[in-house]
């Protein structure tokens, strides 16, 4: 670890009573005249059946979405933070009004829903899980609970992400056998297929305007160029992602974070050092199950088996603050 990295005392966000399954920010930080700096939201999924909404900067609790009868495996917000979608072990996905907390729609499935995602600028949601079916629903017609599209997958789906601003609605699935499949949703066809560790995809994130797909699987983090669907490089980790964990690429700086089979939260160099460890933070009392950078990159949230979320500040002293162009 770089000796210049400072020791951090993170913001601790209690409230959950079981292991965390996902933390996700509202994709865009939006100016708020009553807030200091940018205002954005953080949602969490947890095995306690109660997804929660928080202020992304302070970690302060805003509300809880009540209604699921099983572990919530996935939770996401739309672009402006007005709606939420959650996927659960109760064989359902639920659409929520993120302002009032009301349940707007329930999409019934025949098995556990492991991943959900808003797509097409929030007009649709995609769901997937152990049924091995990628489903897409139109959330602008809440009374319609039947899917617009259904795509059969080879294995159970663990993660779904959208690649934005493409000529067609592009969704990527990561499955339990390590397959990464790129889908044209509107034609329900496969565009590309890549493979990683056979232990399966544990986490997946599209970042930097959708230009980079970050994948955590086995004991490696993989980075794919989404314009050509080729591997940029992969990095061997001091942890594994076989049971939990993930990785997140900083929006602009030359670094990424990863956590998994132990209690440490690590920061690594991206292209400039290709996996050199820059920071290692202690705070959680159980394995790190999920983590994400905030949309402005100034902090990142981690969720653990210990039932807490911790918000850490980005340490600019640990690496040269080299930014990348997103144009």
UniProtKB/TrEMBL annotation:
Keywords: mRNA processing, mRNA splicing, Repeat, WD repeat. PANTHER family: EUKARYOTIC TRANSLATION INITIATION FACTOR 3 SUBUNIT I, SERINE-THREONINE KINASE RECEPTOR-ASSOCIATED PROTEIN. It comes from the Eukaryota. WD repeats lie at residues 65-106, 106-147, 281-322. It comes from Thraustotheca clavata. This is Serine-threonine kinase receptor-associated protein. InterPro entries: WD40/YVTN_repeat-like_dom_sf (IPR015943), WD40_repeat_dom_sf (IPR036322), WD40_rpt (IPR001680). PROSITE patterns: WD_REPEATS_2 (PS50082), WD_REPEATS_REGION (PS50294). GO terms for biological process: spliceosomal snRNP assembly.
